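Your task
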Amino acid sequence: MPEVHFRVRWPDHTATRCYSPSTTIRRTLGAGRSFPLGEFVEISRAALERGSERVRRKHGFACGRAEMQIAIIESFAARYAGQPDARVTIEAYEE
């Protein structure tokens, strides 16, 4: 599967490099787009779960790295949960 990394800019302006097992994340979270925090978590979770399912269909097992990435995103997002205007920006993709 063609994996891809993407850089996320959090509300406090720190950045994180994230992983996806599938390039479909690019269509879901286009580079340069900004999302409300909750929407970003929901969209990225759904996209990573779809990518993990594609791995399951091809290899017979889910993608553990995608599951770990979901947990990391949710952990980071929890830091900003009390900020109603918190936004996340997708900075760039790397393949």
